[in-house]
Amino acid sequence: MRKAETLLNIVRTRSKRGLPVNNIYRMLYQKDLYLIAYSKLYRNDGAMTKGVTNETVDGMSMAKIEKLIEALRFERYRWTPVRRVYIPKRNNKIRPLGLPSFSDKLLQEVIRLLLEAFYEPQFSESSHGFRPGRGCHTALHLVGQKGHGTKWFIEGDIKACFDRIDHTVLIDVLKKDFKDNRFISLIERLLKAGYLENWVYNRTYSGVPQGSIVGPILTNLVLNKLDQFMEKEIIPNFNKGTARKRCPKYKCIAGQISYWKQKGEWKKVRALRKVLQTMPSGEPNDPNFKRLWYVRYADDWLVGVTGTKAEAEIIKDKMREYLKQELKLELSNEKTLITHAQSEPAKFLGYHIRTLHCDTKMHKGKRSINGVISFSIPPKVIKEKRAKYTRNGKIVHRPERIKDEPYSIVSQYQSEYRGLVQYYKMAQNLSKLNLLRHTLETSLVKTLANKYKTTCAKIYKKYGATITIAEGSYKVLQVIVPREGKKPLKTHFGAIPLIFNKRAKINDKKEYWTWNKRTEIIERLLADKCELCGSKESIEMHHIRKLSDIKPKNGKPVAEWKYFMNARQRKSLAVCKKCHIKIHNGEYDGISPRRKTTGEPCDLETVTQGSERDS
After folding, report:
1. Which of 99, 364, 408, 579 has the greatest number of CB atoms lying within 10 Å of its CB?
2. C-alpha to C-alpha distance for 457 and 474, rounded to whole angstroms
């Protein structure tokens, strides 16, 4: 992969030097880029999802890459329309989602790698959506750093951003940085490829296809112009002064305290200090001190204003006008709001955000918290999560999970709870999730009790355990699955401390890991050898959605290839064309002793003819 990385470094270096890239289309001929793209895509759940054709990641081969490159070399490659489906949103609306074919996904991932290499060094520090090493938590960290003393929040959202991205604006950005008409034409054809809905073709005149690989980075290219507008024009022109003017009354009382200290009148000093604690040290409404900050995640953004509401209104109008005139986008009136930072929370990335002040009952007398940004869990979040496990105000079991094994049931409940706790670790009211933990635990116990037709008390007795971690000892529900010759599988529900952490990071580490010494998928594909029969002709990758689909059930024997994949704990298998056809036709009967010893190649023609005759 060194050659592919060298190409990406060249693109990255030219970006840092402020130079455009010429002949980038020729980089699409590099096979190593497609192997890198394949290694990133094959794990995705959508890799086995069909678009308008039957093509999926299953059947991936070097021949397919070579065919794709040849089509690009002679400019014969044509994007297929995406298959459009709709997924529900939280507000009971639906969002369109495009499902491209796998060849399109592969080429889009290669294009994304090149675009990311060029634009990542140029993107603003205020942008956090769909970028490597960034996410919701990094955006929230920046809000906490910049937001001290904020008076007004402008919470914004762009109306149907992905669907309304103007193609002309996007292409103009690309033409400025890539002096290659063939590459620009390839992107234009992608944008205009259209979609099939109920098998009716529809043209696309604006927007980037949602669900596509390159959609997020193309959207960031356009919205980066908004970032530059805020950072180079709005913020420098708004910010004023280096420090707040000292409050005259505060300064006067501080002088009196100094005077009575010299006199030794400590009672008067203590009395004056109490008065001083109730006063701001700086002038809150100093017209010569103003600050503005801006953070964006995808099409959602938050602006903090240390100034007046009228000034916040002006900034909002300027942003609206810029989006409309320059980017051909429109602000959502429903979601673009101006809120007072102390009296009401702003909603950003699922958190409630406000600035603290010591005049509230909870923080009375704590001057150190004045102006500090506070993150909290919205009550609606806990209410909605609990609703999935309650009916008529009573906690109930989940009947759709009864068919699963106890290990799987407990793991699912733990994953849902752990994910929510990890995301809201920055919330100061994190302890509110105790109510959700109780709800999930009760529902889990009732689900297991329904599975075994027993009582909840017996479930607690059977699976109850105590786990000790760094934060202390916790009572949990634990399931242990013994394995012959291996360490037992363990999972549990609970033992997740609800400790506020303003520097929290999401931990995606698996609950357990399985040691595996097999080579990476690229090396297995390049080995050009069938992992079943040893043939070296027409090698391609066989993929499945999940291992549970091919595990033995009810003690029944499984096909040789299923046993092979289960033993390796892999959802992919490098096979020859003959073995692959047999697998899909349900005809694979294992490896013959002769083929094991002699390595006799498979007779592809015979199998293909037999498959066609059977069909």
Report:
1. 579
2. 18
Rg, Å, the chain Cα set: 30
DSSP 347: E
State how far the alpha carbon of 102 is from the alpha carbons of 360, 419, 519, in Å.
57, 30, 24
Angle at alpha carbon of residue 251, lines to 247 and 256, rounded to 5°: 150
Q: Could you tell me if 465 and 476 are in contact, meaning their C-beta atoms sit under 8 angstroms apart?
A: yes
The alpha carbon of 337 is separated from its chain's Cα centroid by a whole number of angstroms, namely: 25
Determine contact, residues 252/155, Cβ cutoff 8 Å.
Answer: no
Residues 6+ apart with CB under 8 A from 81: 52, 193, 194, 195, 196, 201
Single out the residue of 344, 312, 96 nearest to residue 196, CA to CA.
96
In our burial notation (b when 16+ CB lie closer than 10 A, e otherwise), range 592-603 reads eeebeeeeebbe
pLDDT at 607: 38
In this predicted structure, what is the pLDDT of residue 255? 87
* Nearest C-alpha neighbor of 182 from the set 27, 32, 18: 27
pTM for the model stands at: 0.85
Residue with the bigger pLDDT between 367 and 48: it is 48
Two tokens, residue 22: 């010429």
Residues 304-347 pLDDT 10s: 999 899 999 999 999 999 999 999 999 988 889 999 998 899 99
Helix or strand or coil: residue 294? strand
Whether residue 444 contacts residue 410, with contact meaning beta carbons closer than 8 Å, is answered with: yes
Per-residue pLDDT at 532 exceeds 70: yes
The encoded tokens of residue 548 equal 């549970």
CA distance 562 to 590: 10
Backbone angles phi, psi at 613, to 5 degrees: -70, -40
* Residues whose CB is less than 8 angstroms from the CB of residue 6 and which lie 6 or more positions away in sequence, other chains included: none
Give the Cα separation of 355 and 363 in Å (integer).
Answer: 12
Q: DSSP string covering 449-505, please?
A: HHHHT--HHHHHHHHEEEEEETTEEEEEEEEEEEETTEEEEEEEE--------TT--
DSSP string, 28-42: GG-HHHHHHHHHHHT
The tokens of 64 are what? 């397919």
Distances (CA, A) of 98 to 46, 103, 378: 11, 14, 31
**C-alpha neighbours within 13 Å on the C-beta side of residue 193:** 26
| Full DSSP string of 362-381 | TTTT-GGGTT-EEEE--HHH
* Cα(340)–Cα(204) distance, integer angstroms: 41
Which among 280, 256, 251, 279 is positioned nearest to 268, based on CA atoms?
256
Residues above pLDDT 70, as percent of the chain: 90
Q: How far apart are CA 607 and CA 615, in angstroms?
A: 12
Once rounded to an integer, what is the mean pLDDT over residues 204-216? 87
3-state DSSP call for residue 61? coil
**C-alpha to C-alpha distance for 217 and 130, rounded to whole angstroms:** 7
Query: Which pLDDT tens digit goes with each residue over 132-169?
Result: 989 999 999 999 999 888 999 999 989 888 889 999 99
Q: What is the mean pLDDT of the chain?
A: 86
Instruction: Give the per-residue pLDDT at 461.
Output: 94
